[in-house]
Design goal:
Elements (H helix, E strand, L loop, with lengths): L11 H12 L5 H22 L9 H13 L9 H26 L7 E3 L22 E3 H14 L1 H12 L4 H8 L3 H20 L1
Antiparallel strand pairs: 1-2
Length: 205
């Protein structure tokens, strides 16, 4: 399977058809899909890397390629839609970033933890129930602490954990997250406010 390279973006129907073919076992589908989703994967990677503090070693292309290889390893995955694919891509980017952060911490014992800046997200767009989010800004936090907190949130409320993953690790908008989760933008706005306040409390301890 080839890693994705720049090309023309495909429309949602083309991408969905290729994803379903891939899920059905078509060995040619991933190579046909790669250039159609490259730009969006790169956009997601740029957004999340932009939020990491200076000093991270991953570059955009490297993050895209590592996430793509992990997507290819999802044997037996039933790809159903473009939104589902990019939701799983968010999970893969999270795992890549966390694995790199752990490796860096192991190499630099006693060094500063890898941090990611989260407070800028709410300034990137106007979101529903914005007033409910006032006072709950999350700025630079330890990436590994965030990953641990998300694991705890997933036990309590899997959908909220997925939403945070989509927003923080894939840079999806409120509308894009709603599509990926199959809920309304208003529901995402409410869930997002609650999830952020929960994370703020967990990460402050």
């Amino acid at each position: 399977m080839a890693v994705p390279t720049p090309s023309h973006p495909g429309n949602a129907r083309d991408v969905t058809e290729l994803l379903r073919a891939w899920g059905a076992g078509d060995a040619q589908a991933p190579d046909a899909l790669a250039p159609l989703v490259y730009d969006e994967l790169r956009r997601q990677a740029q957004l999340v890397l932009r939020r990491e503090n200076e000093g991270h070693t991953l570059q955009t292309t490297g993050l895209v390629h590592e996430a793509w290889l992990r997507l290819d390893a999802q044997r037996g995955a039933r790809w159903e839609s473009r939104a589902q694919f990019f939701a799983v891509a968010a999970q893969m980017m999270r795992r890549v970033l966390v694995d790199h952060a752990r490796s860096r911490r192991a190499l630099k014992r006693g060094g500063a933890p890898a941090q990611i800046t989260l407070g800028a997200i709410e300034r990137e767009e106007v979101v529903p129930d914005a007033a409910a989010m006032q006072g709950s800004s999350l700025d630079a936090v330890d990436l590994l602490a965030l990953d641990d907190a998300l694991a705890r949130l997933a036990v309590l409320d899997p959908q909220k954990a997925r939403l945070v993953e989509l927003r923080y690790f894939a840079g999806l908008s409120i509308l894009e997250s709603a599509e990926a989760l199959g809920v309304s933008p208003a529901t995402v706005g409410r869930e997002w406010a609650v999830a952020r306040m929960w994370l703020r409390r967990e990460l402050a301890e």
